[in-house]
Structures are given as structure tokens and as C-alpha cells.
Design the sequence.
């Protein structure tokens, strides 16, 4: 019990004094996960919207693949990226394994299906006739898609949050492709794993607390969004 | 406002949905300035026809001419859609303010701010929703939302407006007010309109011509009076002729009641109208009672006509009796009454109905 109390005290101290190492790790986590979320949004919203609005053979298969991808285990994503970036791998010449870039790639791979799946669902849940109504108002296809995305903006915000929440908290892929190198590729989750392993509970707790705080902020925003969506 | 030149004409229109033919129309045309009512039961293809006329759904084949010009390629279709408007049963408003909703069609056309402002303000006023301009579209009642949707459609000054059962999800008083306003605005703007509805009275109120649809086909099209009094077949008759609809002119007004001259007799009805005004009187068959000519019972029914029985059709629990009172009249009576009154085709009876049983539709055209 003493150990936990002592750990909490230490964690609090590290936080309020803005311990440079802890802050550095936090900042890198936000940078990597934020960038990965940004890329996955580009991919996810475009692909999700296209799949939602078009009919093509094999569409059902694509939708199931996206839905399966939403549950892609981070370690599998890490494994795939590692294989590709391995020295003898197809993209080995890039020499980016164990760099933040590799982590961004792996996290994008994890977030993209989540964002795609939620985008697909949000565009699809709009009333069917809305598309016809927009076209009837004189919109061209591009204007129509833009208006639809605007109409689905609240659930799409949920896609952002879910994507970001998914990657900021994952650890498997980050360790595999980032290597947890101090001051270079060490992020909140990988550092927590390491410090816990070493028995440095106070630092682990501080890092864990920051992660929780981020999770709380994400959920608070999400809740706010959901509450703004009054029933029709 | 109606001229003979068709603003829109289609030929050999054929639409399939899921491999099943849902619309088959050899020819159909709409004249500039007229209002065409599409009526028919659910699933008759009214919505499909509207969407096909608005070039919003794929057609198997079919030639559409707008002002005599073919609408076929993507580009022609896009140009055509910019000159029409469609209002659906659901208001389908965007998640923004009423003002921005009404402005949306103009925004899409990249008009300048000032012109958008003027046009939106005019339409908001016309549809009586000026006070809602900054309200969120999510916070509107059903009637307000549909008014916004109509204002949005009219804001782009469409040459043709297609209305797909725009009032069917509204409660009767709301519907009544909106119907009145739409009628007025259609007349003021001279906009050509095609409106699908399953409410015959609604169609009767707005339409210059009516088209009756069944199973993806138009079974009869023509002036409303012709359809009502000369239905092409049994189906049209059963669909439009559930009640007696008589055309006449107001000959006198009392307190709360009017007298209507039918040309072959006069009837009394509850309602308000100006003398000389053309009206239609609808009488539901269940409100018509029959009695023997000899019977001189005192009754509160204000309308009593000598009649001859034309036809008696059994309808399960009761019979439909078609009468000739100089004008056609339909009554529903029980089998018991048929035998009690000894009713048979050719027999003479007295037909009675109360002034409150007459539904008066004012039809200023």
C-alpha cells in the first residue's frame, strides 16, 4: 500500500514539475499519434465516403474487410510494418525501421480501418433521399459529397476520436517498429511498459496518469458531441 | 398562366428497380404553368415517376424533352436539374439554420451574398417563416420544417417543382394551412408543378389536371372533373369515386352555411365562400340516408332529394347504392335496409344528407 501511495506522490511531483523526460515522451506520443490520425482521416474519410456512395461488385466483401480491419490487433499491424521495413524486406532500403516515421506508418495502419469504418457508417446513416435532394438543389457530384460530409460531421468527429484513441493507447506496434529508444522513439505506452518492468512504479504511474487524462479528454469531447446530437 | 406548349414531355419512359419494371409510360407531358396531381395507392409508382421526371433516377429507356430540348447526357441532366426543384415527403433539411437551408440551392449556384439574402428573405416571408430565420433546422415542428423545405425549393426560382407527397406526414390543420399557401404561391409565381399525393382531395384542390396511377402506369389523365365524373375504369372509379364529388357555384350565403347551385338542383352545406364562387362539394356515402318517397318524417337533414336507384353493389357487410338525383350520388346502406325499403334498381327513393356532411372545397381557378 505504501508503495502505491509513494508512487502516486512521485507521479504527482513529476507532473507538476513538468519533468522534461516525461513531457518529452508525452509530446512525442501526441505528435506521432496525431500525425497518424491525420493521415488515416485522409484515407478513411475518402474511402469510407466512396464505399458508402457507390455500388460495385464485391462491395460487401470490402465492407466486411473494413469492419474486420477495425479490430486489427496492433501487434499484427506492427508485424506487417516490421516485415516490410526489415533490412531485407521490400521497403528495407528506406531504412526507417525503429524511427518515429515507422511508428506513424504502423499507427496509421491501425487507425485507418477505424476511421474508414466509422465514416462509412456515418455517411450511410444519412437519409437515402438526402443525396437526391442535394442533387435536385443543383449540386454537382463534388458539391454533393462535400455537403454529405458536412451533414455527417458529428459522427465523423467520433471517427477522429476513435482513431486517435486507438493509436495513442496501443503499445505492441510502437515497440515493434519504434524500438522504445530513449529520447527518440519512446512514447507513453512503451515507456510505461518498460518502467513497470524495471519496477519504477512512480514514473510508470505518472505516465499512466497522463494516458488516462488523454483518454478522459477524448471521451469528454465525444460525450459532448453525442449530447449535441438531439433526436430528430 | 397555362399555355399549350409543353414545358416537359416524355415518351416511352421505362424504369426498373431491382430487375422489376416499376414504371412504364408511353407518353406524358406537362404544360407550362399548370399543376398536375399524381394520385394512386401506395406503390403505384408516383414517386418513381416524379424522380424519373426530375432525372434523379436511372431510366431503362425514355426520352425527356425540356422546352423541346433533349435531356440525356450528364451535362444536359445537370443543366436541367439546375432549373427544377424537388420537395420530398421528409423535409430533408441540413443541420444548420433555417436561413442557411433556404439559401443552400443558391449557395450551390455560387450567387453573390446580397442576391442570396434578398431571395431568401422574400421566400421566408412568402412561406411565413421569417421569424424562424436563425432557428436551427433541428428545432422545427413538422409543419415549419416542410415550409422551410418548400422555401428552399422555391428560392432557386425553379421552372418546374416536383412535390412528392409533401404534406402526408403533417397533421390536418398544419396541412390545411400549408396547402393554402402552396396554392397561392404556385399561382403567384406561375411555377409549373407536379405533385404526387394519395389524398384525392388534396390533388383536387391544387391540380389543373390529374393523373391516376396504378402498377407503374398512368391509367387516366385529364382535368379533375373528367376523372371524377367519367372515370376510365373500375379502378379509377373506386379510387377517386369513394365519395360523391359535385361541382357547383355558390348561389347564396347564410350564417355559417352556403347554398350551392349544382345546375340540376341546389344543396345546402356548412362552410364559407363568396357568392358566385366555384366550389366542389364532397359527400361521403356513409352520410347519405335513404327513405321511401311516401315517408314524410321530420328530419334535421337540410338536403333532401328525390332519387332513382341506378345500381346496387354488394360490398360485404353493406351495399353501395348508386343514385340519380339529377346529379350522381352514392350511398352506403346495410343489407337489412335494402330489404326493409325493398330497394331495387329503378326504384324511386328519397336521399337525404345533412349540411354538415358536405365537405366544401373552394376551387378558384
Sequence:
Amino acid at each position: 500500500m505504501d508503495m502505491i501511495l509513494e508512487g502516486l506522490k512521485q507521479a504527482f511531483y513529476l507532473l507538476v514539475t513538468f519533468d522534461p523526460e516525461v513531457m518529452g515522451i508525452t509530446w512525442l506520443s501526441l505528435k506521432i499519434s496525431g500525425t497518424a490520425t491525420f493521415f488515416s482521416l485522409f484515407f478513411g474519410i475518402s474511402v469510407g465516403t466512396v464505399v458508402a456512395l457507390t455500388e460495385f461488385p464485391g462491395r460487401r466483401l470490402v465492407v466486411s474487410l473494413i469492419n474486420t480491419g477495425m479490430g486489427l490487433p496492433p501487434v499484427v499491424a506492427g508485424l506487417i510494418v516490421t516485415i516490410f521495413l526489415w533490412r531485407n524486406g521490400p521497403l528495407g532500403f528506406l531504412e526507417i525501421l525503429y524511427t518515429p516515421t515507422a511508428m506513424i506508418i504502423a499507427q496509421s495502419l491501425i487507425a485507418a480501418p477505424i476511421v474508414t469504418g466509422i465514416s462509412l457508417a456515418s455517411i450511410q446513416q444519412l437519409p437515402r433521399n438526402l443525396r437526391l435532394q442535394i442533387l435536385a438543389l443543383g449540386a454537382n457530384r463534388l458539391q454533393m459529397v462535400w455537403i454529405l460530409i458536412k451533414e455527417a460531421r458529428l459522427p465523423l468527429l467520433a471517427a477522429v476520436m476513435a482513431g486517435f484513441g486507438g493509436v495513442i493507447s496501443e503499445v505492441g506496434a510502437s515497440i515493434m517498429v519504434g524500438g522504445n529508444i530513449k529520447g527518440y522513439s519512446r512514447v507513453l505506452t512503451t515507456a510505461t511498459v518498460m518502467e513497470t518492468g524495471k519496477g519504477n512504479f512512480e514514473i510508470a504511474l505518472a505516465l499512466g496518469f497522463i494516458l488516462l487524462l488523454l483518454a478522459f479528454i477524448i471521451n469528454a469531447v465525444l460525450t459532448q458531441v453525442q449530447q449535441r446530437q438531439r433526436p430528430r | 398562366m397555362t399555355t399549350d406548349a409543353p414545358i416537359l414531355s416524355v415518351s416511352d419512359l421505362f424504369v426498373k428497380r431491382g430487375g422489376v419494371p416499376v414504371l412504364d409510360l408511353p407518353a406524358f407531358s406537362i404544360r407550362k404553368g399548370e399543376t398536375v396531381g399524381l394520385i394512386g395507392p401506395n406503390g403505384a409508382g408516383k414517386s418513381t415517376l416524379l424522380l424519373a421526371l426530375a432525372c434523379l433516377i436511372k431510366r431503362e429507356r425514355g426520352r425527356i424533352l425540356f422546352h423541346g430540348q433533349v435531356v440525356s447526357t450528364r451535362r444536359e441532366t445537370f443543366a436541367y436539374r439546375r432549373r427544377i426543384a424537388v420537395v420530398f415527403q421528409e423535409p430533408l433539411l441540413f443541420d444548420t439554420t433555417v436561413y442557411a437551408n433556404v439559401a443552400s440551392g443558391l449557395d450551390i449556384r455560387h450567387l453573390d451574398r446580397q442576391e442570396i439574402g434578398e431571395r431568401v428573405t422574400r421566400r421566408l416571408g412568402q412561406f411565413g417563416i421569417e421569424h424562424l430565420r436563425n432557428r436551427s433546422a433541428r428545432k422545427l415542428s413538422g409543419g415549419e420544417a416542410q415550409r422551410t423545405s418548400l422555401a428552399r425549393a422555391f428560392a432557386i426560382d425553379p421552372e418546374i417543382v416536383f412535390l412528392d407527397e409533401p404534406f402526408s406526414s403533417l397533421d390536418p390543420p398544419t396541412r390545411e394551412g400549408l396547402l393554402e399557401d402552396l396554392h397561392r404561391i404556385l399561382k403567384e409565381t406561375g411555377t409549373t408543378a407536379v405533385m404526387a399525393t394519395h389524398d384525392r382531395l388534396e390533388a383536387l384542390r391544387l391540380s389543373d389536371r390529374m393523373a391516376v396511377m396504378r402498377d407503374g402506369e398512368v391509367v387516366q389523365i385529364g382535368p379533375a372533373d373528367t376523372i371524377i365524373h367519367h372515370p376510365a375504369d373500375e379502378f379509377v372509379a373506386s379510387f377517386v369515386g369513394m365519395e360523391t364529388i359535385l361541382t357547383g357555384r355558390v348561389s347564396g350565403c347564410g350564417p355559417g352555411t352556403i347554398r350551392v347551385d349544382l345546375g340540376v338542383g341546389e344543396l345546402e352545406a356548412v362552410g364559407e365562400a363568396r357568392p358566385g364562387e366555384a366550389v366542389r362539394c364532397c359527400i361521403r356515402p356513409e352520410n347519405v340516408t335513404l327513405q321511401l318517397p311516401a315517408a314524410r318524417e321530420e328530419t334535421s337533414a337540410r338536403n333532401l332529394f328525390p332519387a332513382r336507384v341506378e345500381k346496387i353493389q354488394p360490398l360485404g357487410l353493406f351495399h353501395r347504392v348508386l343514385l340519380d338525383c339529377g346529379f350522381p350520388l352514392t350511398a352506403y346502406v346495410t343489407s337489412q335496409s335494402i330489404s326493409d325499403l325493398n330497394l331495387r334498381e329503378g326504384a324511386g327513393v328519397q336521399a337525404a344528407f345533412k349540411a354538415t356532411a358536405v365537405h366544401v372545397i373552394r376551387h378558384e381557378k
User: Anything to note?
Assistant: The CA atoms of residues 157 and 222 of chain A lie 8 Å apart. The two ends of chain A are 51 Å apart (CA to CA). The domain at 2-227 of chain A is CATH 1.10.3720.10 (MetI-like fold). DSSP finds eleven helices and no strands in chain A.
